[in-house]
Amino acid sequence: MTNPFYITGIIPETYFCDREKETQQLVSIIENRAHILLTSARRMGKTQLVYHVYKQPAIKDTFRTFYVDLYPTTSLHEMVLFLSKEIYSTLIPKGKKALKFFLSTIKSLTGSFGYDPVTGTPSFDVKLGDIHDPKLTLQEIFSYLEKADKPCIFAIDEFQQIANYPEKNVEALLRSYIQPMNNCLFIFAGSNRHILENMFNSAARPFYNSTEQFHLERIPKEIYTGFAMQKINDAGRSITPEAAGLAYDLFEGHTYYVHHILHNAFANIDPQKAIDVKDILDTLDDLLDARERSFSSTMNKLNFKQKETLIAIAKEGKAVGVTSVAFVKKHALRSASSVQYAVSTLLEDQLLTYEDEGRRKIYSVADRFLGYWIKKNY
Taking the C-alpha atoms of 45, 46, 50 and 52 in order, what is their torsion angle to the nearest 10 degrees? Predict the structure, then answer.
């Protein structure tokens, strides 16, 4: 029996929930030849939405599409490795002609590509040590994208990572290659809003005013719960409306976490009974217990001011006015200045996230499971 709530890999179209309006808007921006800045809280479904957009007829029939996640990268060398590997891997099934053109363009790495001696299929053998001049290879990659036989779309997820690279002026370097391009559009995506907004909204930064900006919100409750109940029914199981609603409300519609709790409930609850409210709460407890060691390790890495600030925000669930006298007093924190510094660090480390409400910022723990674990244990 197929679990309808995917928590790894790319979600099959049959199990993709809604995002009809967002899909239409993104397709329209692409058709009108604009780059996109796509932001959301972590695990709100950015990656799945990008792949869903790629599958739309107006996109898949016209463009070559690429996707790379820069989250694990720490240098320009690694970025170049990830970009070249993604292009190479995507082109393999497109035929020898497409692959040959790419290889002829990436002259600085040509000697590092190979073929499997058994199957004869192309293999990606490039290692970090093979990238001797990352700026040159990067220039060649963009040259390929500009000269490719079809228009291209390149989604670069967790784009804010480039701000942490040790190499200087990476933003300016990328902008100098991207600005004159006509054959490739870019989707810059990420979850660290305060860094990305600085990169794209500050007049002093290279990417200022270079994209259409799109923030991904949660799926409306009635749409998501209706989807969840239908998919469970299609699988020959059942869930009460109250349980489906609770799964949504616990995480305020944050896609990954709602999906995860329903995935585990579907997997572990007796298939002969309807999943009810108690089952959802028990499943949450099990998920938190399974993450005990990981969450303890996260907390142990924080200094005292960071830890007490994170705990205070977790207890609030959604925290406003975190540097106000009332908030500092309520949670017995050191001072407004110490909270301000701690919040800045926790945002950079992606332990906190925020939403804008007018001129106010509403802070919450980025990992919803961690937030519940802190409330349970502190």
Answer: 10
CA distance 122 to 113: 8
- pLDDT for 48-89, tens place per residue? 999 999 999 999 999 999 999 999 999 999 999 999 999 999
The β-bridge partners of 361 are 356
Query: Residues of the chain with pLDDT > 70: what percent?
Result: 97
* CA neighbor of 154 nearest in space, from 59, 65, 26: 65
The answer to whether position 164 is within a domain reads yes
Identify the domain containing residue 264 by its residue range: 221-290
Q: Is the pTM of this model over 0.85?
A: yes
Question: Of 215, 243, 260, which residue constitutes the final position of a domain?
Answer: 215
Q: Is residue 7 part of a domain?
A: no
Q: What is the dihedral of CA 2, 66, 189, 221, to 10 degrees?
A: -30
Three-state secondary-structure class, residue 6: coil
CA–CA distance, 128 with 77 (Å, rounded to integer): 7
